[in-house]
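Subject — a protein and its fold
Fields — amino acid sequence, structure tokens
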Amino acid sequence: MFKILIVEDDPVLNQLLATRLKQDRYEVFTASDGVEAMAIMEQDHIDLVVTDIMMPGLSGIGLIQELRQANYSLPILIVTAKNQMEDLEEGFQSGADDYLVKPIRLQELSLRVAALFRRVQAKKELRIGNTVFHYDQLTVTEGDHQQELPKKEFYLIFKLLTYPNQIFTRLDLLDEIWGLESESDERNVDAHIKKLRKRFEGNPDFRIVTVRGLGYKATLGEDK
């Protein structure tokens, strides 16, 4: 499950954004200013930041600059009022990836967040030992051998290996890989896991583990 940090000093708007993103099946953290946000970033792995530009103390611009200077490469979505549009240039120059204008339409928030995650994943190349996963090509290279996976199989193994040792329930995987509106059930997850195990049964770099009563996780190398 992706983790999103909302940085907004208006408590009502902060809660509104958090509620919507939780409904979209994200794990949500909240902060009221940039200083509090940096403290959260140091304690938890965050996948995306949604931050207001104008805040007391450490502003959104200041937060973005600190994150980029600290080599955080996660996507950042900035929120601005119509009368602050001139701040967008500074925001993008500091390292922001996209923006929303107040008053925020919650459906647009959901769409932009989802698009940012797709954009980030499309650039990804995941290397596990001698195995390389190419997200944009849906291919896996093992030494001199390369194979293209069916889309759902690739997304499923890529998700598990991106967060090794983290347990994902079948429902988590079903919602994220197949989508909230899918008519597939959790048995479809089990079927795809079975196919992946057979496909990579001789691979020494990772293993898919069933966690009884919970779901699945991937273990790597010496952890296998």
